[in-house]
Amino acid sequence: MNVDLKILHLHRALWYITIERPAGTDATTLEGLASQFGECLLVFAEGGLSRMTDDGPKLIGAPPIESAYRAAAHGEPCDEGASAFSLAPGDYVFFQWRAHGAYKGPARSPSTDNGAEFTIVLEEVVREAWWQQLECAGPWYVRLVAEDGSTAMQALRRLNRVP
Fold first, then answer.
1. Among 112, 117, 145, 150, whose CB has the most other CB atoms within 10 angstroms?
2. Residue 1 lies in a domain
3. Is 54 inside a domain boundary?
């Protein structure tokens, strides 16, 4: 799989409101979240996502979702108190793919996908960031955005410095 990482220069905060964490990362669940809310943000704990092996980082099974959010109305700060969260301005490593579109392995139908496609793509992104020796910190984020009749998935992680 070709993972062409980009650098996202986020110029203003993106605001979110807490929602219930999804039970899994299968395509049906993730597309349902994007369809229901328009835009969601999933947070994966820095240490709980992958482990280092002799061959580079590998995901630890199904990625555990630490927290989940929906986009705040009009993308502005809100009065939700402790349930509000913002993706801070700054530089992020970035990769976007479409649900049911990036992984070119054995065919999987939405009804039998148990999150394998999501896990495979996310692991490739994590491994490519490591391979390129990008200095990142903090959790990995995955934005789910309903657009053009499908779901765009965007993996992001804060860069300590832009290469």
1. 117
2. no
3. yes
**Domain CATH for 99:** 3.20.80
Residues 129/112, Cβ–Cβ less than 8 Å = no
Q: Which two tokens stand for residue 84?
A: 């509000």
Q: Name the DSSP class of 157.
A: E
Q: Is residue 43 part of a domain?
A: yes
Distance CA 28, CA 118 (A): 11
| 119 phi, psi to nearest 5 deg | -65, -45
The domain total for the chain is 1
Q: Answer whether 100's CB lies under 8 Å from 27's CB.
A: yes
How do residues 111-151 score in pLDDT, each as one tens digit? 445 467 888 899 999 999 999 999 999 999 999 999 888 89
In whole angstroms, what is the distance from residue 133 CA to residue 129 CA?
6
Query: Predicted confidence band at 65 (pLDDT cuts at 50, 70, 90)?
Result: very high
Residue, of 116 and 68, whose pLDDT is higher: 68
The DSSP element (H or E) to which 35 belongs, if any, is helix 27-37
Range of the domain at 56: 6-159
pLDDT at 103 over 70: no
From residue 64, how far is each of 27, 43, 119, 139 by CA, in Å? Answer: 15, 9, 10, 12
